[in-house]
Amino acid sequence: MAEANWYVVHTYSGYENKVKVDIEKTIENRNLQDQILEVAVPMQAVVEIKNGVEKAADKKLFPGYVLIHMVMNDDTWYVVRNTRGVTGFVGPGSKPVPLSVEEMASLNFKIPEVVVDFEVGDMVVVTAGAWKDTVGAIKSINETKKTVTISVEMFVGRETPVELGFKEVKKM
User: For residue 137, what is the enclosing H or E element?
Assistant: First the structure.
């Protein structure tokens, strides 16, 4: 599995939330939760004064743009690019350029540190995807990719390694 990065998508002005909802529906319908991880419309809390009355409100930080945390491949590119209201990815030509960790930090997006209580040899149950409800033993843990490789018995007596994300398994 490739590494997920943050990408910026340009949308029609005022369509940011609609694009976010549409992409999230498509993720669910096409079962792409492991490839498109998060869709965000960055908001900023502001205080507006109208007719002498202060009112707290949220304002879009980047009108016309949506941030997407995803693994870039042909399927995910197609899904995002062909969502109604999306005009394209930000980047030179047709090649999307991911945001750097520094750029995300400057937007106050923290890259969450995932702490797992798994160890090699632990028995886990798969919670999502094609292997849902399958039980297996952890053979290896990859902290950088945030994946575990478990050994699953597909046919009687035949062990098969399966790589899954941290969020797809839970300890028994």
Answer: strand 135-142
Q: With beta carbons less than 8 A apart as the criterion, state whether 98 and 131 touch.
A: no
How far is CA 26 from its chain centroid?
13
Q: Which two tokens stand for residue 69?
A: 């945390």
- d(C-alpha 148, C-alpha 166), whole Å: 7
- Quote the pTM value: 0.61
Report the CATH number at residue 53.
3.30.70.940
Residue 102 domain flag: yes
Task: Kindly report, residue by residue over 113-170, the tens digit of the pLDDT.
Answer: 556 677 888 888 888 777 888 888 889 888 767 788 888 877 777 888 888 887 788 8
Domains identified in the chain, total number: 2
- Nearest Cα to 165, choosing from 139, 134, 129, 137? 129
Question: Which candidate, 11, 9, 15, places its Cα nearest to that of 36?
Answer: 9
Q: Looking at the domain assignment, is residue 31 inside a domain?
A: yes
Asked if 14 and 91 sit in the same domain, the reply is yes
Q: Which residue has the higher pLDDT, 26 or 114?
A: 26
State both tokens at 1: 């599995």
- Is 113 part of any domain? no
Shared domain for 80 and 150, answered yes or no, is no
